Input
Amino acid sequence: MATIADVARHAGVAPSTVSYALSGKRPISESARRRIDDSIRTLGYRPHAGARALASSKSNVVALMLPLRDDMHVPTLLQFATGVVTAARGHDHDVLLLTHDEGGDGISRVATGSMADALVVMDVEREDARIPVLRTLDRPCVLIGVAGDAGELTSVDLDFVAAGELAVDHLAELGHRHVGLVGQPPSVYSRRTGFADRFIEGFTAASQRHGARVAVRPCEFTYAGVATAVEALLAELPELTALVVHNEHAAPMLLETLSSMGRKVPDDISIVSMCTDDVAERMRVPLTSIAIPAAEIGSRAVDMVMNKLHGREAPGLTLLPPRLARRDSTAAPTGR
Amino acid sequence: MATIADVARHAGVAPSTVSYALSGKRPISESARRRIDDSIRTLGYRPHAGARALASSKSNVVALMLPLRDDMHVPTLLQFATGVVTAARGHDHDVLLLTHDEGGDGISRVATGSMADALVVMDVEREDARIPVLRTLDRPCVLIGVAGDAGELTSVDLDFVAAGELAVDHLAELGHRHVGLVGQPPSVYSRRTGFADRFIEGFTAASQRHGARVAVRPCEFTYAGVATAVEALLAELPELTALVVHNEHAAPMLLETLSSMGRKVPDDISIVSMCTDDVAERMRVPLTSIAIPAAEIGSRAVDMVMNKLHGREAPGLTLLPPRLARRDSTAAPTGR
DNA sequence: TGCCACTGTCGAAGCGCTTCGATACAGCCA
DNA sequence: TGGCTGTATCGAAGCGCTTCGACAGTGGCA
Output
């Protein structure tokens, strides 16, 4: 394996010159640069990451802590990850993968051991044990999600409050006055993962503003769970004409359940779903939906953490605005 | 940040002694060990990963190359990843995440730059451009999947041929003689990803053995795609009484499609599905299924790559035997 | 008592890179 | 011609660790 000294010898310059040619931190003559480039290519030289990290105290790695829980929607999760990896590579960084269950220990191992220059932490909860750890660290980090006590820590997320409002606004505009919310599984709420609560918050606020009557039910993603939730909502709101679904797994089951109950979508019941566009489009009835821009959130998180790494300021909390895509699952309620 | 020299000073020993205490490569007296441990704890010492990598030429990192394609079943993918990360941590290694689209370049960047000691590469295709690169590398690697020209490279995968056979064996045993296969999307076959072809191979071989008549159709995971596939299969095999589904996304759609055609499962049509157990159990009719033991494959891959890293031999190709879980979607065909 | 083997520890070299300060040289102006 | 500025390059130190060889001390055996 060639070293920088080999390259220097081959090109007839000092090792430091090669280093400067590589980093661009000092001017290099045209001729030297050419010889160095040639030598690098013919020797197949690649700098040793460890040596570089040692000398420069920069690892060019960002750590990504991913939850691997089965009550999360996995494809969305992977979109976050893709956004993070792609953006990181764009900043010439690699990504070290940590899982949620390593917790604060994993974070400090990677940070204190100088394996990573920066951290992106997903799926933060309202009261998250990792946040104190993050705060003691000297390394920049960005949270995906909104923690209650994030304080000065930088966070990015979809504006779930606005998403909840947007769903109701759309339905109210069409004339709906009785709207149910099919939520996430109970475990998600009891973990106090911020996004689920925030969605309900926006949903409720907008309903009040529009004078609509609403009901909310968590929902497991099994047929039985969906049926239970729908029955409970109908019992509470007999005149229900619209549903908002914040549960990617449950959406197809819901459609099937309603159809087996003889309720047509959108004629009898309108549906707005929180889900990615491709899921919405593949449904039996293509769903009007609000997507979580997961890849964008991931790449934004990396951009911000890079800003901090370079000493630039980053905002405390960034909430991306939701966008609603109209499809075939929403219509004005049929007069009765 | 404390260094090994700080620890040594604090404990009243030489830095090398601390190093040996940490690595266990030379005997250390009980008293020295205790003082060193104390010093490490009070100083919050953590070895610098880069320095360690430089001195020992070991990074304690394995690179994982993950495909992020949307025609793959993402939850399964993440199970592989989970298996890999968990096993790697068990071997005191971290995981560097690479995406498929970095290709051979990504592999050689990470390997030549000494960022990773070993590689796990997923989703290998019959003729994979990364394989020649892998072969020139001095680092151990393990493939997940079966490549045509893997040669002496180590590979792990589910035995998809056996899985195809197992599905047919089960149906034949029940008395089915006309069986259709609902396959992966066409793009998967045209990429020549081994697993899909191998499944068909086993399916076909077992059918011949049992004297069953069969038909095979690729299938997009849209309702239209599923309907098309089912119609084509029925046209080719009017007496069809059973379906094998090798397509996790399509399974629920298939169930719905059959029910809307008035065909009952399992009374009119039996179904065997390749999918994870939790997906199978959540279906309207719980599916008899063969699961891909993704997490186990992932952790096996890591175990093998670690063996190679320590100079132990690893087998060329490991195929895990499939297991079929009987649920409610298969029964003997009703006599006509 | 002398020798040997073993255990526990130390010091120093070296891993491959970055970076600081020094230096050589060219070109310019006075 | 002397002195100055600026550009391009070099040499050496040092980043924090591992590892090799050396060596002091201890105990056992002849």
About this structure: Chain A has a mean pLDDT of 93. Residues 3-5, 15-16, 19-20, 23, 25-26, 47-48, 50-56 of chain A lie near DNA strand C (CB under 10 Å from a C1'). The CA atoms of residues 104 and 129 of chain A lie 7 Å apart. Chain A has three domains: 4-47, 61-157+294-320, 160-291.
